[in-house]
Amino acid sequence: MRRSRGIEGARLGTPIRIVDIGAMHIEGDRPSYASLLEAGACEIVGFEPNEPECTALSELHGKPNQFIPAVIGVGDVREFRVCKMRSRSSVYEPNEPLCRLFNGFYEGSEVVERTAVRTVRLDDVPLVRDPDFVKMDVQGAELDVIRGGESTLADALVIETEVEFVEQYMGQPLFGEVDQALRRLGFMFHTVLRYGSHPLEPVVGADQYGGVRQWLWADVVYVRDILSLASIRDEKLLKMAILLHSLYESYDLTFHILNIIDERSGTSMASGYLSGFAGSGDDE
User: Fold this and answer.
1) What mean pLDDT comes out for the span 119-148?
2) Buried-most residue among 47, 74, 151, 281 (CB within 10 A)?
């Protein structure tokens, strides 16, 4: 399939509003929304417990993007565990007995500091009202974020979140609970971006994505239930189409959304989108 570039130049009245919960950059990784950030098509409000990391992100991305040193949750006081690998820090205790069963899975999860923090409910942060895209990477606390931000998340178009299939952290909610909570808010599962697996001991040196069947975690995407799209205003729908096209190459759903806009407004964005595919010289 050839990629369409037609939608990427679509004019928006306001930038795409991104809420990034667990915004730490891991060296060598780029956030899924990097292309929108580089194009100046979005504004970010990010949350990250690590204050120096927030400062670094603010300096890197500049205004109007904001990065706030906070732990997002349900507004309670929790013990925050800082792990040797900072990206694994969590309000949940690393599950050492289980993780050590998988070769290399526990490495970096050793707790080096513990501190009491008051978590912040997303619904109590005016800056994040009416988001378009929400990313969650909070090491087992995804359901806490959802419960403290139901009103905010209900206005989002696309949610990208990490989920776990085993208790990497003791007592953490797993994929099924996160899935049910998001579906109650009007979302449907869309796709898996990537997953993680490690071989069970004593197997060593195996390709963790070949011949290893136990999924441990995954980054997944949820979208507004496609049966509800007609109730969303055109500007928001166009943002959803741009997100799906630019971040995930979800061409069929992008085309479906543009068709809805065209039928209501008399535009021809869907046919222009198809023309963009035909005119592109890049093979998929």
Assistant:
1) 97
2) 47
Domain residue limits, the chain: 11-229
**Phi and psi torsions of 210, nearest 5°:** -130, 120
Assign 275 a pLDDT band (cuts: 50, 70, 90). Answer: confident
Please give the model's pTM, rounded to 2 decimal places: 0.93
Distance CA 63, CA 43 (A): 9
**Tens of pLDDT along 96-114?**
999 999 988 999 999 999 9
Secondary structure, 3-state, the chain: CECCCHHHHCCCCCCEEEEEECCCCCCCCCCCCHHHHHCCCEEEEEECCCHHHHHHHHHHHCCCCEEECCCEECCCEEEEEEECCHHHCECCCECHHHHCCECCCCCCCCEEEEEEEECEEHHHCHHHCCCCEEEECCCCCHHHHHHCCHHHHCCCCEEEEEEECCCCECCCCCHHHHHHHHHHCCEEEEEEEEEECCCECCCCCCCCCCCCCCCCEEEEEEEECHHHHHHCCHHHHHHHHHHHHHHHCCHHHHHHHHHHHHHHHCCCHHHHHHHHHHHCCCEC
pLDDT of residue 4: 47
CA separation for the pair 129, 2 (Å, rounded)? 36
Quick: pLDDT tens for 79-99.
999 999 999 999 999 999 999
